[in-house]
Amino acid sequence: MRIAVVSDIHGNLEALQAVLADIKAEGVDRIFCLGDVVGYGPNPRECIDHVRTFDACILGNHDQAALFDPEGFSHGAEQAIFWTRQQLEENSGDDPDVRTRWKFLCELPRTKTLGELLFVHGSARNPLYEYVFPEDIYNPKKLEKIFSLVPRYCFQGHTHVPGVFLENCQFISPGELTDNRYELAGPKVMVNVGSVGQPRDNNPLSSYVIIDDRTVEFRRVDYPRDVTVEKIRQIPDLDDSQGLRLLEGR
After folding, report:
1. d(CA 105, CA 229)
2. Predicted local distance difference test score (pLDDT) of residue 72
3. SS3 117
4. What's the confidence (pLDDT) of residue 17?
5. What would the DSSP string read from start to end of 145-181?
6. Which residue from 182, 159, 179 is spatially nearest to 170, judged by alpha carbons?
7. What spatial distance separates the first Cα and last Cα of the chain, rounded to whole Å?
């Protein structure tokens, strides 16, 4: 079975559509999303409608913030969440999908387990909020505690930076892998799948992974970023910086 794992779409419809086209071309059997369907981007409703068709989705911190209130967000991220909430509430009297979208977000679980695979948004220790950055390899106590909660393989997002964490405090970026592939074997592993809608590893291409038996393939997909940037520019409640960063992948 081939499983595509996407994360951190953040309301970027153009990126999501491009990734879904790539997934279809790859003959994937199932699609899992690791959360943050909304936030930052200009098309939260359309992105939710796509993700509702996936085989699984878990809750991200921006999804949680849309339901309740932003926690520890920057001003721009907070402003985007309040605007997102307005979009999800709009036309509540005549749009039959309004209630369905809210119900979808409300029912998202915080984790998913499939055999020896664990899927979270942040980390195995704190599925919703904890960041695991590449520089955390210099914080062995943190990684040791998180790895102790990983059954064997953990797939996560949240940082928007793809790569592989090993128990011996190593981080392997996709560019260091042969053909962008990592073989799941031996000790425990944490895999960050990167971001569909807002990459932050200085590569503006959307990032996701395909799990094929014991192989994890990191994939990058181009999309019309200028379209998304212009949409954001046209919305006063979205900071222009959230669009401009898409051009550089930062």
Report:
1. 26
2. 86
3. strand
4. 98
5. HHHTT-SSEEEE-SS---EEEETTTEEE-GGGSGGGE
6. 182
7. 33
Please report, as a single letter, which amino acid is at residue 191.
Answer: V
Looking up tokens 């605007």 gives 83
Residues 6+ apart with CB under 8 A from 133: 159, 161
Contact 160, 193 (CB under 8 A): no
Torsion sign, CA atoms 80, 81, 86, 88: positive
Q: Cα angle vertex 62, ends 106, 14, to 5°?
A: 100
Residues with Cβ within 8 Å of 37's Cβ and at least 6 positions away in sequence, in order, are 9, 10, 11, 44, 47, 48, 51, 57, 60, 62, 63, 105
Instruction: Give the largest Cα separation in the chain, rounded.
Output: 55
pLDDT for 14 equals 98
* AA identity, residue 87: Q
Q: What is the pTM of this model?
A: 0.95
63-102 as b/e: b if 16+ CB within 10 A: bbbbbeebeebeeebbbbbebbbebbeeeeeeeeebeebb
Cα 25 → chain centroid: 21
Rounded distance, CA 233 to CA 127, Å? Answer: 32
**Rounded to an integer, what distance in angstroms lies between the CA atom of residue 66 and that of residue 114?**
27
- Positions of the chain with pLDDT under 50: none
Comparing CA positions, the residue from 235, 243, 241, 250 lying closest to residue 87 is 235
Q: What is the pLDDT of residue 94?
A: 63
Determine the residue type at 65: A
